């Protein structure tokens, strides 16, 4: 209506001016003034006035557009500064709304954000007053306004050029006189953070530059909200990680150069508070036997010539009341605050070390108990016999006719004494075996000697002996007599296990090369060894046979250990027992 009035006035003004000019010209030339003379000037004057009105309107609109767009650009620059500094999403969108209105970019602005569950929860507005509270209530009730429903289903900005028609009962419709709205979705990396609505003059609604700026503005805001979300996630992650590190039972510290820049509570408990004169704790608190190793460890760390390094040492922290602490330390390279650093992980191994020591003591006590029980068992019977024969000897001592019986008693006494001596000798051999006399030889020699000694006995017991010895074996450093003793013991054990076997009885002895060792295998077709007994067979005095001392395999293991070899037991393909002996091949001189 206002523009129509301005247009009519412009036409009348143009008509009046040309008519006045025409009348002055007639007066000057003394012509008679007639009404029809003013027809053409009036028409041309009206047309001229109308064109002048159109030009003025375009000029005014272009000037307003330039002012508006410049204001938008200024606002975007200000908003980018806000996005760079503000880390609270609620404060951020309120500052954005105020900036967009204060720069005279838009008449009013409002923003609505969704929470993590996709529900509308945070709102901000500028220049809308109390009417906006009604909008927030509508959103919270789960019924977003019309522009929101449209913008969430379209990829580009949504233009509302007829609010009264398109927005229905929206509480903000009355504030959009001679204006429309541009709404845009706030989305970044596939995540929707909310929406923004800008109040724009009608003449600017369909302007491409205006729409481009509105879209750019929404993208900038969405990126800022995305950055805040990532920052919050990072802070949450850092908080959880710091809590994990601070409450860790492992001592953790970070070293840059020669300085400890961080340590957790457990590390402080182990080595004491910062600062420290040395990265590995105070040297005077380190056990003297471990000090040189710790110093060398520290030097390598300071040089940075490590990728992964471990050390065990004993430490005496002042806070621990004089109790020594065993520490296992691992150092590795990391980057901390963009600088090359060394990460220390230290574990208090005091309790495991104590438990290990206790277990060793318990194991020794258990072995000692088995040894004592074995010795007592082996000696008790001969001693009982000695006592009985001594009593008998006392009865026969004064009788000449019983002299032959006295000799028999003495014979039994000597036999019992020899049994006791044999037990004691075997115990002594176990505890302190004779020194091996090593020579370079082929293992087949002692094996064949042992087989020769046992062949007759095995044949009488109906045992089939299979021999597979590889010829031209590499030489090994052996004590032939001790190694022959081991093979004899293995074969005798195999023969003993076949006593109650019904069916074919088989013993197989093989030799060969496996990697850098000569391997000897003794297999039998007996009942085998129970799984729960396999770890015990080499324990002293462990036996499942009534007439055995249980010390033979322990001596065999000691002999093989002296030869730097290994002996183990397993089940073979027949279901019986297989002993496998590995002796290292002798290194050739030169």
Question: Nutshell version of this structure?
Answer:
This protein is α+β, with helices and mostly antiparallel strands and 590 residues long. It contains 14 helices and 17 strands.
Topology of this protein?
Blueprint: H1 2-29, H2 39-85, H3 89-102, E1 109-114, E2 120-126, H4 131-140, H5 146-151, E3 158-160, H6 163-166, E4 179-188, E5 191-201, H7 208-246, E6 251-256, E7 259-263, H8 265-271, H9 288-303, E8 308-315, E9 325-336, E10 339-348, H10 350-396, H11 403-431, E11 439-441, H12 444-460, E12 463-469, E13 476-478, H13 480-497, E14 505-514, E15 517-524, H14 552-562, E16 566-571, E17 577-584
Parallel strand pairs: 12-14
Antiparallel strand pairs: 1-2, 1-5, 3-4, 4-5, 6-7, 6-10, 8-9, 9-10, 11-13, 14-15, 15-17, 16-17
Helix pairs in contact: 1-2, 2-3, 2-7, 10-11, 12-13, 13-14
Folded structure, characterized:
The protein has five domains: 2-66, no CATH class; 86-235, GAF domain (Beta-Lactamase, 2-Layer Sandwich); 248-348, Beta-Lactamase, CATH 3.30.450.20; 354-431, Helix Hairpins, CATH 1.10.287; 439-584, Histidine kinase-like ATPase, C-terminal domain (Heat Shock Protein 90, 2-Layer Sandwich). It is built from 14 helices and 17 strands. The chain has helices at 2-29, 39-85, 89-102, 131-140, 146-151, 163-166, 208-246, 265-271, 288-303, 350-396, 403-431, 444-460, 480-497, 552-562, and strands at 109-114, 120-126, 158-160, 179-188, 191-201, 251-256, 259-263, 308-315, 325-336, 339-348, 439-441, 463-469, 476-478, 505-514, 517-524, 566-571, 577-584. Strands 2-1-5-4-3 form a five-stranded antiparallel sheet, with helices on both faces. A five-stranded antiparallel sheet has the order 7-6-10-9-8, sandwiched between helices. A five-stranded mixed sheet has the order 12-14-15-17-16. Helix 10 (350-396) packs antiparallel against helix 11 (403-431).
């Amino acid at each position: 209506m206002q523009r129509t009035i301005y247009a009519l006035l412009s036409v009348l003004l143009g008509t009046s001016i040309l008519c006045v000019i025409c009348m002055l010209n007639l007066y000057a030339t003394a012509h008679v003034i007639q009404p029809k003379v003013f027809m053409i000037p009036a028409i041309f004057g009206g047309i001229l006035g109308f064109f002048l009105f159109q030009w003025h309107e375009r000029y005014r609109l272009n000037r307003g557009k330039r002012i508006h767009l410049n204001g938008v650009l200024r606002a975007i620059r200000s908003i980018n500064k806000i996005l760079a500094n503000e880390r609270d999403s609620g404060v951020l969108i309120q500052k954005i709304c105020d900036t967009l209105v204060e720069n005279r970019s838009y008449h009013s602005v409002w923003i609505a954000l969704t929470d993590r569950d996709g529900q509308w929860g945070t709102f901000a507005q500028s220049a809308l007053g109390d009417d906006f509270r009604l909008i927030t209530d509508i959103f919270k009730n789960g019924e977003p306004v019309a522009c929101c429903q449209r913008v969430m289903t379209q990829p580009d900005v949504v233009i509302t050029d007829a609010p009264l028609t398109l927005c229905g009962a929206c509480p903000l419709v009355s504030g959009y006189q001679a204006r429309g709205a541009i709404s845009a979705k706030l989305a970044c990396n596939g995540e929707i953070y909310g929406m923004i609505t800008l109040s724009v003059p009608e003449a600017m609604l369909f302007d491409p530059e205006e729409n481009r700026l509105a879209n750019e503005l929404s993208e900038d805001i969405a990126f800022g909200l995305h950055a805040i979300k990532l920052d919050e996630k990072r802070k949450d992650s850092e908080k959880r990680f710091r809590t994990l590190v601070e409450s860790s039972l492992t001592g953790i510290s970070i070293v840059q150069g020669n300085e400890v820049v961080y340590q957790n509570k457990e590390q402080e408990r182990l080595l004491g508070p910062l600062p420290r004169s040395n990265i590995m704790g105070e040297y005077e608190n380190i056990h003297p036997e471990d000090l040189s190793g710790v110093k060398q460890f520290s030097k390598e760390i300071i040089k940075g010539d490590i990728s992964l390094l471990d050390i065990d040492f004993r430490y005496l922290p002042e806070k621990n009341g004089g109790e020594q602490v065993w520490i296992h330390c691992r150092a590795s390279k990391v980057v901390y605050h963009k600088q090359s650093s060394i990460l220390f992980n230290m574990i208090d191994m005091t309790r495991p070390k104590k438990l290990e020591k206790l277990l060793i003591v318990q194991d020794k006590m258990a072995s000692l108990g088995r040894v004592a029980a074995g010795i007592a068992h082996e000696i008790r019977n001969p001693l009982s016999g000695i006592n009985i024969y001594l009593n008998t000897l006392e009865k026969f001592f004064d009788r000449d006719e019983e002299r032959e019986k006295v000799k028999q008693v003495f014979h039994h006494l000597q036999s019992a004494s020899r049994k006791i001596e044999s037990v004691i000798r075997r115990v002594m051999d176990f505890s302190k075996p004779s020194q091996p006399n090593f020579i370079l030889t082929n293992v087949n020699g002692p094996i064949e000697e042992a087989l020769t000694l046992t062949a007759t006995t095995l044949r009488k017991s109906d045992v089939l002996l299979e021999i597979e010895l590889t010829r031209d074996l590499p030489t090994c450093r052996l004590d032939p007599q001790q190694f022959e003793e081991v093979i004899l013991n293995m074969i005798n054990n195999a023969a003993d296990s076949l006593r109650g076997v019904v069916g074919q009885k088989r013993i197989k002895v093989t030799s060969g090369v496996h990697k850098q060792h000569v391997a000897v295998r003794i297999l039998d077709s007996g009942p085998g060894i129970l799984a729960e007994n396999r770890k015990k067979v080499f324990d002293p005095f462990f036996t499942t046979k009534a007439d055995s001392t249980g010390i033979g395999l322990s001596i065999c293991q000691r002999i093989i250990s002296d030869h730097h070899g290994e002996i183990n037991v397993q089940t073979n393909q027949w279901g019986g027992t297989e002993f496998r002996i590995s002796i290292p091949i002798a290194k050739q001189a030169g």
